[in-house]
Amino acid sequence: MSTIDFPRNFLWGAATASYQIEGATKEGGRGPSIWDTFSKTPGNVKNGDTGDVACNSYHLYEEDIKLLKELGVSSYRFSVAWPRIFPHGDGELNQQGLDYYHRLVDELIANNIEPMCTLYHWDLPQALQDRGGWENRETIDAFDEYAKTIFRSFKGKIKKWITINEPWCASFLSNYLGIHAPGYKDLQLATTIGHHLLLAHGRAVQSLRKIDDSAEIGYAPNAGWAQAYSTSEEDQEAVRRANGWHIEWFMDPVFKGEYPPFLVKWFKEQEGVTVPIQEGDMEVISSRIDFMGINYYTGNVARYEEGNGLFHIENLDFNYDRTDIGWPVYPEGFYQLLLYIKNQYGDVPIYITENGACYNDGVTNGKVEDHKRVSYMKIHIANVNRAIQSGVNIKGYMAWSLLDNFEWAEGYDMRFGLVHIDFQTLKRTKKDSYFWYKDLIEKTNYHL
């Protein structure tokens, strides 16, 4: 039996997002977000579910922090709901919203849990969407004002900031594939929005430097990993395009000050799509960051197939184990992704800001025996360790998620939590994975 050891200063944590757990969507002066609108539009979310109540963490945050404390994590990644701070996106500040997050952060600090705050986890104020949303460059200005307000208010309390969560999802998944809010299906729109999200990120980085240069800031792109089926040029190029859509498209601008030329050319030739770059944009986007978050869940083997999707690629089914949401369990892809990022961008500090699995085990005799989640976490965390041993500068790991929650377009059907939520009673029940993770954190090692 092999033992996996982690550095003593490795940061173990758990992660959540505001719209997925808070509820209280009409309390405390909060304005509506695009997810309130999207989820209340018939056909967008399974079962017609909404985040109106979710886990009710807005009211039960102290109970949730007790769960974090007992779990033994040293960090908690959460997000601020922009419409709690500026109900109309900009203009009048809602002090009640700021006060709520101060109570949350103060309680975390009192329990020796470091807050890691995400500014944008997709709940754009609906008022800004009504003015064009992220397609409108004025939304970047509104985001910068929102960011500066949060930075000033929490200076000295929060030392780790994440600007944008998963810009690929907030642009392409939401505005090209139409699966998430606001639900459009326009590749040029999605490409424009992706650029504006990166600009908003860069502006926020520059603003933090002026307000609190002792704090650290980064962003949290998501990426899967496609492994080429063969060494054929067609397979290799198809996989390069598919991986590049998540990796290079949202990382090259930040680290190299340009979009990947091979994908720029592909978008232009295949779809007539261009990036609306204005003078000075790339300098803003490539503002120096302190770390990068990586969100990883799945991957697969893939090969070229003419006419299959935007990139002419077929994902092959090698009879993978799959999580309950249908995603292949592909831990080798995690390792390969992390090595690739190091090779492309150097020794950038990395936090794994999301990694986890959907298994929908229920409560039986007061217990949740989610053995498949434990198995998933074991092998994925082992591959984080492999990457560390291979020289990747990984500083910490945030399990997704602390709680079962509102899983976006899947509603409440899909469960990623270490803690089970009964969405009728809101009772919290610790799963076996919670106790396994607690044991890992205590020992900083485990047996494969």
UniProtKB/TrEMBL annotation:
<dbReference type="InterPro" id="IPR017736">
    <property type="entry name" value="Glyco_hydro_1_beta-glucosidase"/>
</dbReference>
<keyword id="KW-0624">Polysaccharide degradation</keyword>
<keyword id="KW-0119">Carbohydrate metabolism</keyword>
<feature type="active site" description="Nucleophile">
    <location>
        <position position="354"/>
    </location>
</feature>
<dbReference type="Pfam" id="PF00232">
    <property type="entry name" value="Glyco_hydro_1"/>
</dbReference>
<dbReference type="InterPro" id="IPR018120">
    <property type="entry name" value="Glyco_hydro_1_AS"/>
</dbReference>
<protein>
    <recommendedName>
        <fullName>Beta-glucosidase</fullName>
        <ecNumber>3.2.1.21</ecNumber>
    </recommendedName>
</protein>
<dbReference type="InterPro" id="IPR033132">
    <property type="entry name" value="GH_1_N_CS"/>
</dbReference>
<keyword id="KW-0136">Cellulose degradation</keyword>
<dbReference type="InterPro" id="IPR001360">
    <property type="entry name" value="Glyco_hydro_1"/>
</dbReference>
<dbReference type="InterPro" id="IPR017853">
    <property type="entry name" value="GH"/>
</dbReference>
<keyword id="KW-0378">Hydrolase</keyword>
<keyword id="KW-0326">Glycosidase</keyword>
<comment type="similarity">
    <text>Belongs to the glycosyl hydrolase 1 family.</text>
</comment>
<dbReference type="GO" id="GO:0008422">
    <property type="term" value="F:beta-glucosidase activity"/>
</dbReference>
